[in-house]
Design goal:
CATH topology of the largest domain: DHBP synthase
Strand order of the largest sheet: 1-8-2-3-7-4-6-5-9-10-11
CATH class of the largest domain: Alpha Beta
Largest sheet: 11 strands, mixed
Shape: globular
């Protein structure tokens, strides 16, 4: 059966639509909904059977934990055992917003949500539809991104429908999301706190509150040891259907290497797609070139990234060649997603080309 879609005003969503979606959540169903980051696939965080439906719909590995979304700070008492002072500092500054915090879980939180970890990731989304849905449901909502596991995260309702039509009960279509990348995830139970996944709240912003912040090696593309502490750390993520080759290094060398790869792949009869910055768009003689934005506006690049990867698939690319971006600010999150999406990553520089490893 096709999934039902309800269009809602992203600024002033219809209370009747929210009430209908909230009722779906309460009876154990699945609702896809917009947040300021990407579309989420929500179920009651306190209903283990409903949570297991998320994993089944996405084809998501059971050891990949979920994030619990709340609409009010007092809702934390239903899922978190204690909220340290440093967490309250971060919440005062960044909530509602794209920041998830790992805190000690309450026993009422099902193991399916946390992948058996003693912590639970929590956040308060900065989107009227998301907040309205949580309040209408009357329960905290567990929600990963609303896509098939491993695919680029959805920033539009049509992306959700492309992946999950017939697998979920309802999609709230609130238009395009803003940040375009999943939330920053910080483990506050570690000393010092650990950045497990970069996102819209940058490392520098976190350091202003926390002081020292350790960056998990998984952020830089290393495989985590043991169970992942946050979503996005383990397994292939964010990948289009076509294989991705990510080229990193000085821009002029990246452009040169991508042009040579275009010629090599075209000689093999492959339809080449390029994910390019605005500065490079006109330099690539490929049949499909998708621009994600200027290198001077990395927030725009982040917002466009997943839609661009899906567009390259839709335009029939057999292989995707992607430019790397500077890693300052939200660029760290952009490169984290591109490295996770890529089947091959190479670095080019003054001393020649070396593989990523």
């Amino acid at each position: 059966m096709a999934t039902r879609i309800l269009k809602v005003d992203p600024r002033r969503p219809d209370p009747d639509a929210l009430a209908e979606a909230g009722a779906v959540i309460r009876r154990g169903g699945l609702v896809a909904f917009p947040t300021e980051t990407v579309y989420g696939l929500g179920a009651s965080a306190l209903d283990p059977e409903a949570v297991r439906r998320i994993f089944a719909a996405k084809g998501r590995p059971a050891d990949n934990p979920l994030i619990v979304h709340v609409a009010d700070a007092q809702d934390l008492d239903r899922v978190v055992r204690e909220v340290p002072a440093v967490a309250r500092e971060l919440m005062a500054r960044f909530w509602p917003g794209p920041l998830s915090l790992a805190l000690p879980r309450r026993p009422e939180v099902p193991d399916a949500v946390t992948a058996g970890l003693p912590t639970v990731g929590v956040r308060m989304p900065d989107h009227p539809v998301a907040l309205g849905l949580i309040r209408a449901a009357g329960v905290p909502i567990a929600a990963p991104s609303a896509n098939l596991s491993g695919r680029p995260s959805p920033t539009r309702a049509e992306h959700v429908l492309e992946d999950l039509d017939g697998r979920v009960d309802l999609i709230l279509d609130g238009g395009e999301t803003g940040v375009g990348l999943e939330s920053t995830f910080v483990d506050l139970t570690a000393r010092p706190p650990v950045l497990c996944r970069p996102g819209g709240i940058t490392l520098a912003q976190l350091a202003e509150v926390l002081g020292e912040v350790r960056v998990d090696p998984a952020v830089l593309g290393k495989e985590p040891q043991g169970p992942p502490r946050s979503p996005g750390q383990k397994y292939a993520h964010y990948a289009p259907r076509a294989p991705v080759v990510l080229v990193e290094g000085p821009l002029s060398r990246v452009q040169e290497r991508i042009r040579s790869l275009i010629a090599e792949e075209a000689a093999r009869g492959r339809r080449v797609g390029v994910l390019a910055s605005a500065e490079s768009r006109g330099l690539y003689p490929a049949p499909v070139v998708v621009e994600v934005g200027s290198r001077s506006d990395l927030a725009r690049v982040a917002a466009n990234l997943f839609a661009a990867l899906r567009s390259l698939d839709a335009q029939g690319a057999d292989i995707i060649l992607a430019e790397g971006f500077p890693e300052e600010g939200i660029g760290l999150a952009i490169m984290n997603r591109l490295r996770k999406a890529a089947g091959q990553v190479v670095r080019v520089g003054g001393e020649g080309e070396v593989p990523w490893g």
